[in-house]
Structure formats: structure tokens, C-alpha cells
Fold:
Amino acid sequence: MADKNLPTDGRFTRLFDHFKREWQIYAMLLPTIVWFIVFLYKPMYGLQIAFKDYSIFRGVAGSPWIGIEHFQTLFGNDQFLRAVSNTIKISALNLLFGFPAPIILALMFNEILHATYKRTAQTIVYLPHFISSVIIAGIVITAFSPTLGIVNIILGWFGLDSIYFLTQPQWFRPIFVGTGIWQEAGFGSIVFLAAIAGVNPSLYESAVVDGANRWQMMWKITIPSILPTILIMLIIRIGNVMEVSFELVILLYQPATYETADVVNTWIYRQGLQSGQYDLAAAGGLFNAVVAFVLVMTANTLSRRFSRTSLW
Amino acid sequence: MRKLSLMAALLAGSAMSTPVLADGHLQIADEPLELTIQMNHRAYPIYEEDWPVEQQARAWTNIHLKDATVGANMRTDSENTGRTEALNLMLASGNIPDIVGSSRIKDFVNQFGPEGAFVPLNDLIAEHAPNIAAYYAERPDIAAAVKAADGQMYYIPYLPDGKYGRAYWLRTDWLDALGLEVPETVEDYENVLRAFKTQDPNGNGLDDEVPFFARQWPELIRLVTLWDGRAHGSDTYHDFLVEDGKIGHGYVGEGYREGIKNLARWYAEGLIDAEIFTRGSSARDFLLSENLGGSTHDWFASTSGYNSLSSEIDGFEFKAFLPPASPSGRRIEEHRRILVKPDGWAIGHTNEHQVETIKYFDFWFTEEGRRLANFGVEGQHYDMIDGKPIFKQEFLDAGPVNRSLYQVGSQLQGRGYFQDYNYEIQWSNEFALEGIALYDTGDYLIPDFLGVAFNADEQKVYDRTWSTIRDYMLERQQGWILGNGDVEADWDGYIAQLESLGWSELMGVMQTAYDRQYGG
Structure:
């Protein structure tokens, strides 16, 4: 609010004074701003090829406009629509099972009292995060192999027929989501562990005095205290709904499993990059970004209204 | 033509003489001329100025190639997308070197050449490249195949030599152990595979044999030829095919339906590797060296090499056999060495020495140039014996010969040249030569589809429909073999779905482009 005693441009004078006083902080911000401009804002210029008949040789500016033809192509293509639906389904499963996993893991770690055991267990669950997707895919393909895979060997012990999991459409999503949880749940729990560490110990002390058991303390103190963190993570997660980790999909899918496995980004990869249709790929990417933007806006608004926690 | 005969006369005189010709008849520029080059291939990511072959070419022609490769990318996959990406990156950077050489260059230059990125070559060839012109005069079919939709050539291709590529292979020692004959028909073949599955030919007491396997799963699909179907119309998987001037596709044929039905039956029975779709490129290596694999369809040269396993596996013998006859009695080998590859080199539009460049391209079609491109440098890598280039023994002994040749700068597929099959015969092992001789006893090869070039409107139809159709075809194909659906029951729906994805429209533009290109 502008001070009534100042002239009408007082707000700008104060802004100038503020910059003058705090310039070091803004200088520290600068690299991040430059990074955003160079890697996120400047490439937006190229988004226009989604509305152009793009030729690499003619360049972005030299290619002719063709309106929304690429979007018509996209939405007239059954495989693209199926990919959108697959993306949403895989993301929904990821959200349903993958999002709570690190929270549960963090709560469990919090209850471990033996320090060495806790550290060892944490290290083991963090490890898969640092393995490249190519290796992860190799492990998954081997584990689910119909002849030598551990999963089918175990099924064999119970007299069950071996299943060629990676070519069965109905098995793709469970395997993919499960792999994602195995790979990321441990590392994802770090954020929640940090939040738990920030809970005021006096709350627990008074709860003990009041005779609360550990279970009650978890439900009444820990979870409500880390709820803002959970909600922020949820909003970020929802913003990434369209970004199924497509390198892992590419490594695991087959034409036989396209039915359930083909997501928007893999479809864009095949159509756009392998076939050199960059304009169509850009249109698909733009669609992805718009959906993600709407989702994150919605999630943020809902979160602000119901819990007063929001990203902005 | 006068120039050609002069060259031939010179050659005849010099063939047995000193390695380096000092008379300068191959010289193109008076002063050393530097040209920049982009060259990216899975086996050589950039162009090396110290390759002995490059240095010899430099000494003869006075043209120096300087590497200017952008986006070097050694990724290998069945589609060879790494090369296309490097080319796209080069184009997007805005700087096109004087010469651009790559595998998978044909569609690229035929699309961007007419837009102005590459120099049209027809007139340059006619005026300045007598050896290339002479080659095309002899092979009008190949001249037609490399042209863009506007009738211009934009690249000089790599032209493979030799007829055979892949063949059917079998553990003949297992046949002997089980008292079986080499299969003559598809029925025999099935019985052999079943015997491999059930009669424990490796004798370890376990049911672990894998009767049919393949490094690339589309090789399994090629077996539909055993029921008079067609799979791949060229050495590109899932490609269109041409029969009597008509473009078609294997995956809509009756024989294909019959073949897939039988392959599904084979798969269910365990005659085909259960992991055929995921085992990947190490399948042959693993299954043969573990004494598990029975039969495959793969290259003569590399597959015959596995017979050295006989030192580890008692009696190991992996031999080529003729394509089994289909129920109607036809025997075809669908794979062959294609006559012209979509690989080679082109001239960038900013090149200021186009005449010298086309003369340089022509140099590789002279007798000396061709020998240099095929065998390396005389005296270093080969000697002339009785007028023929023969590799030095130490060169043959220095590891895989293909790799050694790449390392000295010869047999580069990013270079436009005419391969000489004699280079390969010298290091093919007895099993490969025996197999080739066997395949030469009959007429099993069929013509390849050499590709078409689209104009802009046709390209749009192709881009819009083909990837989608192809994805759908492969999805159903794998599904049927794995038992997720029945090809007989699904067939009408499959054809109808292809139609709704634009099949007729696609075949229409393919045929139009084909007729324009080959004058059909």
C-alpha cells in the first residue's frame, strides 16, 4: 500500500531504494534468471513450429504458417488419443501408489530407533535412484524373463506356468509403476524425513505426558505437521502428470504392449523424432504442456482454498 | 569415354608397378584444395584426416578433406536414427559443410535438396564425372532409384557388391546326432525344430534348447516366406515391396496371414525362442555359445564365424541350408544385398568448388579410387598379385577385417563408392563360402524394393499415415504370434482398420511416386 504522504510515483522510488539496498541478493538470483531465460523462455520462441509447416533448412522464421493443422492431425489419430489415455492411466496409478510410498517409507524410517540399522536401510532404498534407466530396464527385463527370470522361477515353485510378462499388455502398467516405486520411493522419502525432522520436539514431549502412544503421535502430530510438505509435493507431482518417465517406457515396451504402454512422449518420439516430423512433435509437446499447466493451476487453487498451502 | 579408355590404358601399364602413381593423372586441383566434410557412422563418428586412405587420396587428387562433423552420434538401433539425428542437427545449426556423407542420407537429401540445401548433381555428373556417368549408363535402374521427386540426383550412393546377405542356419551336428536330414520343405523344417525341442540334442538332460532364435525379431517375421507370404520388401525391415511394377506390402497378403497363423502355432509349441521379442542383439552370441540355439536366419559372414566354437563345444557345426520349400513348392530367400544403399555423400549448397567436388566424387569410381575405397593403400594393406589386390596376411590377422578397414578409412559407407566383393571373399571362412556356393546352385533371390522419392504433397500423406499404420501392423503382428488374438478371426477387422488409417491413400501416393521414378 502506497503511503498517502508520498507522491504518486512513490511506489517506484521505494522499489528503487529496495534494489539499491538489497542488490547483493538480486545479484545472487541472476544466474537462475539467466538459466530460465536461456533454457526455458528462449526455446518458447520455437514453439511456433507447432503452427507451421516446419523445415529444418528453412528454419523457424522461414517456414510457412499452417494454423492448427497439426492439432487436427493429432486429435484425428487414434494412437495419439490412446497415448493420452495411457499417460493419464499410468500417471493416476503412479499417483495412487507411487505418491504415498515415500511418505509411508519416511514415517517408517522415523520409527526406527537403531541408528546403524536405520542408516543401512536408508542407503539400500536410496540406491536404485542412482542407477541409470537403461540398467533398471535391463534388470526388469531379466527379472521378468520367461525362462531365466526370478519372477517366473518363483511362479514355477508354486506350479504356475511361466508368463512372458513384457509382451502382455495387461502386465505392463503394474510392472512399470512397480519399477518406478522401487526406483524412486527411497530417494523421495528424503524430503519427508527432512520435514519430520523439523517438527517441534516439545509437541511429542507433551503428547508423552498426556499418555499418547507412538501410533497416536504419528497420526496426531507427525502427519499434520508435515501436511504442508505433502501438499506441495502433491501439487508438483500433479504438474508432472503428463511427464511419465518415457525413457523407461521406451526401454520396456514392445509393439505387442503399445496398447497399454504407449504414452504421449513415446508417441511423439516415434512420430516426431524418428520420422523427423518436428512440427507435429512440437504440437504434441505443446498439448502436453497446456494440460500440465491446467492441472497444476487447479491443484494449487484447490490446495490454497482447502488447506491454505500453495506454491504461489 | 575417351578419358576412360586412357585411364584403362594407364592402369594396365601400372598395375604391377610401384604403389604410388606419380604421373598426376588423378590430380584434380593444381593447388591443394581444402573442403570441409561431415561424416558420421556407427563405426566412425567423424572423418579422420590421418586415415591412410584419406592421405593417399589427398596425394593423388590434391583435395584435402577437413572434418567438420556436427552431432557425431554412434548410437545404433535397427532404424539407424542416430545418423538421421546428426544430419538434422547439422542442418539446424545452419552450416552445411562442402561435403556431407552419411548412412541414411537418401531421404534427407531428397527432401532438403529440392529446398536448396544440397546441390543437384545431374549436370555436374554429365559434364565432369565420366566414371559415375558410365556406371549409371549401365545401371539405369539404380540411377532411377537415387533420384529425388524432381528428377535430380542429390547424392552419390554407396553401392554394395555381392548377392547374398542372410541365410538359414542350422546346427548340423544336432541333425546328425538325432539322425535327421537337412530340411527340404517347411514341414521338414518344423519337424527338425520339434526334434531339437523334444529330443535333447545338446544332451544335457534338460529341456533348454531354443529351436529357432533371431538377433532381430523381424527375422522371425521373415519366416512367413515359408508359407508364400512376404515380410520385408528390402533390407529395411517392414518395407514396402514391388511385384511386376506394383507396390504392395507383405503385411496385407494372404501368405502373410497363413504364415503368421503357423508362426503362432510354432510359438505356442515352443519351436520359437520364448523371448524372441526381448532377447535382443546378443541372442546369437548367447544361445550359440551356451549350446542352446538350434537355427536362425542371419548373415553369412558373421554367422559362419561361430563355427570356431567347435573348440569349446564338441562337434559344434553351424551350417547354412537352402530356404525350405513352401507348401506350394516355392523356395525364396527374401534377404539379399541391396543394389544401392541409402548411404553415400552429397554436396552442400554453400560449396564454392562444386566442379572439383564432383570430380573428387568421380575419383572414387576410377579403378584406383575404387581399389583405395575397398582395399586400403597398396603396399600398406594389400599387394597387387597377378593384377589383383590381395590383402597382406598381417592385415588379415590384425582382428576383424571390417573393423581394420574402417580404421584405415576404407569401406566407409558415408562415402559414395562401388564395393568390390572380392574384398570380402578373402576373409570369409570356409563355412560362409560353402553356404554361398550352396545358395548359388539355385535361383532363390527376389528383387528388392529400391525406394521412392516423394514430392511435398506425397510426403505429407506418407508422414501422416505410414508411422501410424506401421505401429498398428507391428502391434497386431506381435500380438498374434504371442497368442493375444487369432489372426484368422481378426483378419477382416485388421484390414478394415488399416483402411480407416489411410491405407488406400498411402498406397496411391506410393504407386504414383514409383511410376514417376521408374517409368512404370
User: Anything to note?
Assistant: The interface with chain B takes residues 55-59, 73, 77-79, 141, 145-147, 162, 164, 166-169, 254-256, 258-259, 262, 270-271, 273-277, 280 of chain A (CB under 8 Å). The two ends of chain A are 20 Å apart (CA to CA). Chain A has a mean pLDDT of 88.
